[in-house]
Design goal:
With 405 residues, the chain is of the alpha/beta class. Helices cover 40% and strands 19% of the residues. It contains 12 helices and 14 strands. Strands 3-2-1-4-5 form a 5-stranded parallel beta sheet, sandwiched between helices. Strands 10-9-8-13-14 form a 5-stranded antiparallel beta sheet. A 4-stranded antiparallel beta sheet has the order 6-7-12-11, with no helix packed on it. The termini are far apart.
């Protein structure tokens, strides 16, 4: 422990990280630098500065990373149509590598020996933070207090605060009973009644969306413009990546879109039940697949679909900076060269319905696809040979008595 002189702490200003800030100085006798990232979690991040100053922290970093988050992390992920286990849009997972990257950079800027985080020893986030950190700075030291201390309950944490005069919010009456994480892509809920997979979430839990049955009776129509697989405008208005996601979150939430209740397999081995609100991401996934359906070659699209579960698992498990994810990303980004155009959507009571798509790079040829007389590009007689050739192995197997029934 004597070789730790300075630590950069991922600091939210909440109970856990406030305790960690003091615990680090007590346990390691080191200086603490705090880093608070604004990735669109809502609320003010500046109060974290005052809390850190009150604890005697000298170096305090508070940074607005919203544009970088959406541009360099969310958008590349959505080019892949990534879904973990068929349902989870990876809202928490995709924010961790960015936060870890800045932790490492700040450690290098300030001459710190280590970084620290408040992720528990049961969760995925410890893996995501640390794999990212080691990929970027192989010699960095990581301190994970939840794997070291015995302050394993809220009561013990509050007692520690009382002992060390750490000012924290102690009222629980208005505090959510759930463990929550939010950023521009989503908000997650775990704990309390959700630990029973049979228990229906309370309506009051949801913060970003109305219930589908309470959504407007009139549908909302929106148009999204795409350039190389990324949304660049909504209803003809050019927007930055973060503004796109903010806008889609609002319109999606107002129409009851984006709720998910999932039992997922954590990388550390256990099953976990979580609820998520991802209104903007739900819209983005549906629309992106729609513009790809018009502009992307069949075999390339199918290859992407084959690779997507692996890509999604890499992000979920914390391998954003791995060579395999970077290689997959290069393929995915190349696939988006002609994913340009416009998608029209109808949002109605929890549903995202594609009602139109158009592109100058469309591969849809009406003169060939038509059920009416075509221009001769497709000779229907050719299909007979095509079918016979593809049926050959099936006919041989059947003659040998290997046909399946």
């Amino acid at each position: 422990m004597s070789d730790i002189n300075k630590v950069v702490l991922a600091y939210s200003g909440g109970l856990d990280t406030s305790v960690i800030a003091k615990w680090l100085t007590e346990t390691y006798g080191c200086e603490v630098v705090t880093f608070t990232a604004d990735v669109g979690q809502g609320g003010e991040v500046e109060p974290a500065r005052a809390k850190a100053q009150a604890m005697g922290i000298k170096e305090i970093f508070i940074e607005d990373l919203r544009e970088e988050f959406v541009r360099d992390y969310v958008y590349p992920m959505f080019r892949a149509n990534a879904l973990y286990e068929g349902e989870y849009l990876l809202g928490t997972s995709i924010a961790r590598p960015l936060i870890a990257k800045r932790l490492v950079e700040i450690a290098q800027e300030t001459g710190a020996d280590a970084i620290s985080h408040g992720a528990t020893g049961k969760g995925n986030d410890q893996v995501r933070f640390e794999l990212a950190a080691y990929a970027l700075a192989p010699g960095i030291q990581v301190i994970a207090p939840w794997r070291e201390w015995d302050l394993n309950s809220r009561e013990k944490l509050l007692a520690y605060c009382a002992k060390h005069d750490i000012a924290v919010e102690k009222k629980r009456g208005s505090k959510s009973p759930y463990s929550m994480d939010a950023n521009l892509l989503h908000i997650s809920y775990e704990g309390d009644i959700l630990e029973d997979p049979a228990a229906e979430p309370e309506e009051a839990m949801w913060l970003w969306s109305v219930a589908p049955e309470a959504a407007p009776d009139t549908p909302t129509y929106i148009e999204l413009d795409y350039v190389k697989g990324d949304i660049t405008a909504i209803d003809g208005v050019q927007m930055s990546p973060a503004s796109v996601l903010e806008t889609l979150n609002k319109v999606g939430g107002a129409n009851g879109i984006g709720r998910a209740d999932i039992v997922e397999n954590r990388y550390v081995g256990m099953k976990s039940r979580g609820c998520y609100e991802t209104p903007g991401g739900t819209i983005m996934l549906k629309a992106h697949r729609a513009i790809e359906s018009l502009t992307m070659d069949r075999e390339l699209a199918h290859l992407k679909d084959d690779l997507m579960p692996r890509y999604a698992s890499l992000i979920y498990n914390g391998y954003w900076f791995s060579p395999e994810r970077l290689a997959l990303q290069a393929l995915i980004d190349e696939s988006q060269r002609f994913v340009n155009g416009r998608v029209r959507l109808k949002l109605y009571k929890g549903n995202v319905v594609v009602v139109g798509r158009e592109s100058d790079d469309s591969l849809f040829d009406e003169s060939i696809a038509t059920f009416e007389e075509d221009d001769g590009a497709y000779d229907q007689k050719d299909a007979a040979g095509f079918i016979k050739l593809n049926a050959l192995r099936l006919r041989i197997a059947a003659r040998k008595g290997r046909a399946s029934h």
